[in-house]
Amino acid sequence: MAYGPARALPGKNIKISTNPDTEPFWLAAKERRLTACQCGNCGHFRMPPSPYCPECRSQDKVWPDLPGTGEVFSFAVCTRNPADGSEYVYVPVVVALDGTNGVHLVTNLYALDADDVEIGMKVKVGWNPIQDGWVLPIFEPAEPA
Amino acid sequence: MAWAHQDKTAIVGIGSTDYYRRGKSWPRTINDMAGEAIIKACKDAGIAVTDLDGFAYYSTAGAGYKDKFDTASLMETLGIPHVGFSASLTSGGGGASGAAGLATAGLMNEDCKYVVTVMALQQLPEHRLGVVFGASAPTPENSFLQPSGLVGPGHLMSMLARRHMHLYGTTRDAFKEIVQATRLNTQGRDKAVRKNPLSDDEYWGSPMLADPLCRLDFCLETDGAVAIITTTTDRAKDCRHPPALIHGCAHGGAREWGRAFAWMGMQDPDFASSGHKFVADRLWEQTGLTARDMDCAQIYDHFSCMVLMQLEDYGFCEKGEGNDYVLSGAIRYANRNSVTGACPVNTHGGNLNEAYIIGLTHVTEAVEQVRGDAIHQVEDCEFALSSGGPASLPVSGLILRRA
Predict the structure, then answer these.
(1) What is the CATH number of the domain that holds B253?
(2) Torsion-angle region of residue B79: left (phi > 0), alpha (psi -120 to 50) or beta?
(3) Is the dihedral of CA B252, B258, B260, B261 positive or negative?
(4) So what's the ipTM on this one?
(5) Which residues from A are below 8 Å from B271, CB to CB?
(6) Would residue B197 count as lying in a domain?
(7) How far away is chain A from the Cα of B350, in angstroms, using its nearest Cα?
């Protein structure tokens, strides 16, 4: 079956909310910087960001600039726009982020044919402006097809 | 070491409403349907509704995902004079089989004498479970999930299925076999929503909802209610039917599976699993049994792929061999005495084919199997397994034993 091009979901339909634990991730994304929550004590990465490090219970957090690349850990192909049910090919993906010992980000792949997505594929971050001035990190192939 | 409360409690009554396709139960209400299931379960047990004095819920006492059960309201509705135990397992459908263990906790603590576990759901358009994540307002936590367009549980599980296919060579043929094999078990079952055998063409023609899963890999969306009554084995002697002894029951899970439905943070091998291994290991430790001792298995089947992964986690086959195990015909009722290692799965048709009442139908089928009055009865059924979840923790499992 041929799905054709995978698209980013329309940012005008996407809304997020933040709290003090998660906001640094989104503030970095607004500046087109990909980060993840890292323990300031033991260095363990965790996503989504949470108040304690599950490894050492430290509340110290750091937000390093990551390379912005990663690897497809798993994915699905969907064909209906969640906002209105219209035909719309998009690819939800779990990306293992480079520079983090494999912490996962749940996001979308775009700028490729959905039929060509493979586990293990190298991807790089792109940016999708969404509601309220926030920016969502999404991913495209690291190397053009 | 054997569980201290092994065989000391039993499920003695089961009851259910008709099963309706999503939204079709209106103008009935949730408490109307819950009440019918409870009254029928009491009648099946041979006790009066006024004998009930305990409530053991799961899914955080949810009725579906928007409505909530309230013990005081049910007492008022049904005229239950007093209650000594009212508690729920947390999270969602993962607790479906474990609620019998919660009931056991109340009974063994002598808080109560007859405990009801009830689930009812009514999926009016604004209450639809299949798109529950997409429809909810974004919290700071699900802001890391919802924007990806993973709108419901099946979309999340498709990610697990894909990883399983990648790691172990699992095929969609195995998912098809799970749906087809369990569909056959709804024949002769008047209340089942889907009764016609499922052809290959029909399966392969089913639209993909979240590739690699098609619509027929997703369970039904059903309205209806189911209730079960649990009491002590001593009191069970006065009930109408032979008791279904609670031989082992566990809920919980390991951190690596965690908030699986809302997180996707698991690494290998937990990612492509059902998250049930912790509970499975506890059950086998409680009972000294293994999967090979089970005469049937009622496996929570919200999505076909998760049946395969549970079969692995419970040890019906090795990890990564679910594809070949299923394709050997081992889960078919008709093959129970002819295929090596066979164990009939979802002899009622399951969530995929009979009805989706958030997993409580799996418990009622396990009860019928060990008391010998199932529609597709397994001969000489001594042990029946039922499971709840895969979902965010806790998930659960239950082993019933013939009295």
Answers:
(1) 3.40.47.10
(2) left
(3) positive
(4) 0.97
(5) 73-74
(6) no
(7) 25
